[in-house]
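Running co-folding for guanine.
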Amino acid sequence: MTLFRARVMDTPDDPFADGALRSDEDAGLLVVDGVITERAHYATVRADHPDEDVVDLRGGVLLPGLVDTHVHFPQVRVIGALGMPLLEWLERCALPEECHLEDPAYARDVAAEFVFGLASAGTTTALVFGSHFASAVDLLFAESARVGLRVTSGLVVSDRGLPDPLLTTPERAYDEAIALAERWHDVGRSRYAVTPRFSFSAGEDLLDACAAVAKDVPDAWFTSHVNENPAEVAEVARLFAEAEHYVDTYARHGLLDERSVLAHNVHATDAELAVLAGHGASVSHCPTSNAALGSGLFPLRRHLDHGVRVALGSDVGAGTGFSLLKEGLQAYFMQSLLGDAGLPLTSTHLLHLATRAGALALGLGETVGDLGVGKEFDAVWVRPLDDDPLDVGLRHAKSPEDALAKVFALGGDSDVAGVWVAGDRIKG
Ligand code: GUN
Ligand code: ZN
């Protein structure tokens, strides 16, 4: 049993439905076997538990562990390549690097770098785009389990349009996915995600094989890309003449339900949004990636108007780093650049998108995403150095919302002073 003392902020009530920021200036959180069992003013909890160990996290802000709903394991070494649109970036930058993961020694190093990157940014839960190589995906699961992160991931599959070493067959894709799922699905904090790279690189038979894996692995997750870039969208329309639209290339194979998360969806039509909403699928909004690749401005308002669930993704390595704080800020920038079509976002919206919305998209809303009683203690302590601009801003903030806005505007990985998953400190 441990008693945490901190300034705590979280968003149990959806701010897109008028929920307010929950902020406690001096909270006591009692954690028993990794679960929060009491939350009240520190003095109140302390009075009931005078002998417990206290972890004093005063100074800075304690937030729920951040949730990244779209991040690529094999791309940690190519973060920061600027100046290319999607298809050129894939060809020149991402895919050559991904070929290296065929070598298990290389993949082991990248897995360690990747998991370290997540934890350092305060990300405690992630839906991870794996590798095209089963051995590399196995190493990713092993490393994330060793560190203690909640990772949902899987074998990335493609059978056309990519370099030969990254291609597979429907039969091999099925067999390797099932073998990985048997080792990792619902084992500890790991879960399996069926992962065709995108319809651009996946033919009908391969998508059928994906559907077979989804059927044969109970409660498997599904993730892929959709509607990211106009040239990609046009090519998918050409390749799938029978499909109604890009979303339909997945839907017609039965791949969309409430355990599906599609990344980007920048160029969605109303018909596609209706299909996503109808299936209860979620969209991972990846703003730094969309800006870096010039993919476009994400129509958040249209997603929410259609009832499509949205959370945040870093999309490392097209995205410019692991920080969900940065993604939140960029999401805010994007909506303001959209003018009347944009949705004005407050710091409360940004925290929700980076925490509880992600937990809901990943079916973990009962377990993590806020710091209320009954939730597991996944938390990130944002504690800048004394007199750092963020420290100055926090000390002079006019309200909790103002303080939280400063966390998003000024906070980064170097301010992440501690990270916990289910009560275990994994960083700091
Ligand atoms: N579409 C297919 N593969 C990728 C990828 O690796 N990154 C992004 N941003 N989009 C993709
Ligand atoms: Zn991606």
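Result summary
The mean pLDDT is 98.
Residues 104-120 form the longest helix (17 residues).
Job closed.
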